[in-house]
Amino acid sequence: MINLKQSVKNNLPFILLVVLLFSFRSSVADWYYVPTGSMEPTIQVGDRVVVDKSAYTLELPFTDFVIAQTSDIKRGDIVIIDSSAADTRLVKRVIAVAGDKVKLENNVLFVNGEKATLSAKDHYLYTEELLGQRRTIALNPLPSPAKSFNPVTVPKDHVLAMGDNRNNSVDSRYYGFIPTKEIQGKAYAVAFSLDTEDMYLPRKDRFFTALH
């Protein structure tokens, strides 16, 4: 016991540093590995994305207890979801928030009566413009049963989220509306990226790039 106490005393600065680091990662910021291509081309397999965990709420470290709300979730935000329906962590884009009316017709979005404009780029990539926002999405020629859905209204304390790789994403079209309490933070940048198809070599052009 004496040796343990002496060891703790001798290593107290290091122990405090570790506690502070994990507290920071628990409630302020963290990074996550992306294993699937559901957010391509915005986020690629092998990316490590930086997440602001205090973007919407500030939680007591190592708990789900919310100390304060810091901001509202907005359309277009890329969020990390601890999904109970999927029983896993998801990275998706918020398409609509509470009160919004949404429908999808053959991969064309309508939000609150406004129709998205799609402009072809290359290799099944399109620029999607909707409600003043612009992003690049992928519409691969895959047989997708979820390329259309009837008009829905997003309920209170929920969002509708989808992947940018529209025909290759399991999202709100399968799991339903996402409870805001399951959203863990906002992804805002790629810290670094490893090419899983090329011996995990670094993709230097993706290091420290912002997400839009």
Describe the model:
The protein is mostly beta strands and 212 residues long. 14% of the residues lie in helices and 42% in strands. The protein has helices at residues 2-10, 12-27, 172-175; strands at residues 29-33, 47-52, 57-59, 66-69, 78-83, 88-97, 101-105, 108-111, 114-115, 117-120, 125-130, 133-138, 149-153, 158-162, 178-179, 183-195, 201-202, 209-210. The strands form four sheets. Strands 1, 2, 5, 6, 14, 15, 16, 17 and 18 form a nine-stranded antiparallel beta sheet that branches. Strands 9-8-7-13 form a four-stranded antiparallel beta sheet, with no helix packed on it. Strands 10-11-12 form a three-stranded antiparallel beta sheet, with no helix packed on it. Strand 5 and strand 6 (88-97) form a beta hairpin. The radius of gyration is 20 Å and the shape is globular. 25% of the residues are buried.
